[in-house]
Amino acid sequence: MTLGEKIILFVIAIVLVILLSSASFGRKDRMKYLKDRYEAALRGKDKAAAWGAGREYYSHLKGGKLSAEDEETIATDVANMEDN
Predict the structure, then answer these.
(1) Contact status, residue 80 vs residue 43, Cβ threshold 8 Å
(2) CA torsion sign, 16 to 18 to 23 to 25?
(3) Do 62 and 34 contact (CB within 8 A), yes or no?
(4) Domain map (residue ranges) of the chain
(5) CA–CA distances in Å: residue 23 to residues 11, 34, 78
(6) Cβ(35)–Cβ(57) under 8 Å?
């Protein structure tokens, strides 16, 4: 393997590491955003908005699939909100 080929492989490896790490950080940022949005909705008075934010947050946590336990957790959280 020539020096030029080694450099090309090294550059490709660096690009792959950067892409994979940025995707991971993007997912973590999205998770934090959804969690913060859900918690803010629960502090408010709009139960429909809290339901939506909760479903989106838990769906993201579980790769797009909500479980019965997730729905129950959201229902409990929304039930504990202050009424309008």
Answers:
(1) no
(2) positive
(3) no
(4) 26-79
(5) 18, 17, 32
(6) yes
Higher pLDDT, 35 or 18: 35
Q: How far is it, in rounded angstroms, from Cα 77 to Cα 39?
A: 10
With contact defined as beta carbons under 8 Å apart, do 38 and 57 qualify?
A: yes
Q: Is residue 59 classed exposed, middle or buried when 0-12, 13-18 and 19+ CB atoms within 10 A define those classes?
A: middle
Please report where in the chains the tokens 């909760």 appear, as a residue.
54
d(CA 51, CA 12): 44
pLDDT tens for residues 22-81? 666 677 788 899 999 999 999 999 999 999 999 999 999 888 889 999 999 999 999 999
- Residue 47 tokens read as 């139960």
- pLDDT reported for residue 25: 62
